[in-house]
Amino acid sequence: MASEPIVTGDVFDEPPRSSIDETPISPTKERKNSLEEQLKHRPERSELIDKNILPHSTAAPSLQERQRELEKHMRADSLNEKISHRPSPEKLMKEGVLHEDPRSPDEKYAEAIEEEYAKREGGA
């Protein structure tokens, strides 16, 4: 049914026309453009690896934590192995690598105390 003019006296009144608001509820296009701009400036994976943001591993993310734990334990084992094979202080003194300190333990202690007091008072 077509809308007919309403007659009120001599004047023809048009029925009110509804205006359509075509603005989007959410600015999705602007968000999409913003996201695209940000993605253009996204750092490369290699850069993130260099900065230690991403792990160097190519393993699946579910395995990376286990891989880190394994690497940590392997480093600890390696250090313990090296420590167990290091020479004793006596052997190093015989070889001339270490030199025996001529001060007695009491003299070393007294000097350490003096240095500590000097640090606290703003001296040395």
UniProtKB/TrEMBL annotation:
Keyword vocabulary terms for this entry: Nucleus, Repeat
Compositionally biased intervals (Basic and acidic residues): 28-50, 65-108
PANTHER family xrefs: MYOCARDIN-RELATED TRANSCRIPTION FACTOR, ISOFORM H, MYOCARDIN-RELATED TRANSCRIPTION FACTOR-RELATED
InterPro entries named among the record's database cross-references: Myocardin-like, RPEL_repeat
Organism (species): Monosporascus cannonballus
Region (Disordered): 1-108
Compartments where located: Nucleus
RPEL repeats: 33-58, 77-102
The name this protein goes by in its record: RPEL repeat protein
